Amino acid sequence: MNTVNGKEVACMEKPMYHKGITREQIVDTASRLIEEQGMARFSMHLLAETLGIRTPSLYKHIGSLDELITEVGLQALERQRDAQLKAMEGLNGDEAVFAMADAYRRFALDNPEAYRTILAMMSANETLARAAKMITEPVMLALSQYDLTEYQRGHWQRVLRSFMHGFIAHEEAGFFVHFNQEKELTYQMGIRCFLDGMKAEISRSSCTGSQQGAEEQMQ
Asked: How far, CA to CA in Å, does 76 sit from each of 40, 115, 124?
């Protein structure tokens, strides 16, 4: 209460607004809250409360909740990509593929909400293009040392990513609890099967190409 001309007058509480808040701080805090609380419990109100500002103030930096989730997903995807690329440093061939695949799974298990956020990103054209590049970059790099054309690598990276994500989805859902075999070993067996299949296909393509070349010379 304030006193004006000898009378008590109720005063409105001043809203909290941190003038120095940045978009990056908002995205970083949202990422942390989503990982700690889960996507289902996350809200713009919770974010504003954590930052010490009013909810409407968030919209001076972020257009919508969907836009924020997209930014959080892209940040998580960048972290995942960097972890994969770091794991492959100095490695070649099969070792690089195993290291990349292990880093992919490790990120998903250590950061389950961040991984789910990547999958929940809005699929706007520009966002999708940025996301696709970060998703495929480590896998395409790992496969670049094999005798594959760019077209063939495009197919094989899909096969590998499908296995990695499928395994993680089953693992996270608890579908591997019936048998007590080590999940890490099962995962590595899947990667080995992928590599063996890819190499067999490369060998068949090479033999077919050599045979066709020999037949053309004989004609």
From this structure: 17, 7, 17
**What is the set of domains in the chain, with CATH numbers?**
14-63 (1.10.10.60), 73-207 (1.10.357.10)
Per the DSSP assignment, residues forming a β-bridge with 9 are 2
DSSP 33: H
- CA 44 to each of CA 19, 23, 69, 211: distance values in angstroms, whole numbers, following the listed order: 18, 14, 11, 64
User: Up-side HSE of residue 103: CA atoms within 13 Å toward CB?
Assistant: 22
Structure tokens at 200: 């067999």
Measure Cα distances from 42 to 5, 12, 58, 89, 162 in Å: 47, 29, 14, 36, 29
Q: Find out whether 78 and 134 touch, Cβ atoms under 8 Å.
A: yes
Question: Using an 8 Å Cβ cutoff, are 122 and 66 in contact?
Answer: yes
Taking Cα atoms as reference points, which of 137, 138, 140, 135 lies closest to residue 154?
Answer: 140
**CA 197/CA 199 separation, integer angstroms:** 5
Over its length of 219 residues, how does the chain's per-residue pLDDT go in tens digits?
555 455 554 444 433 445 578 999 999 999 999 999 998 999 999 999 999 999 998 998 998 888 898 889 899 999 999 999 999 999 999 999 999 999 999 999 999 999 988 887 755 556 777 788 899 999 999 999 999 999 999 999 999 999 999 999 999 999 998 889 999 999 999 999 999 999 999 999 877 655 454 445 545
Give the Å distances, CA to CA, from 180 to 165, 185, 219.
Answer: 21, 11, 60
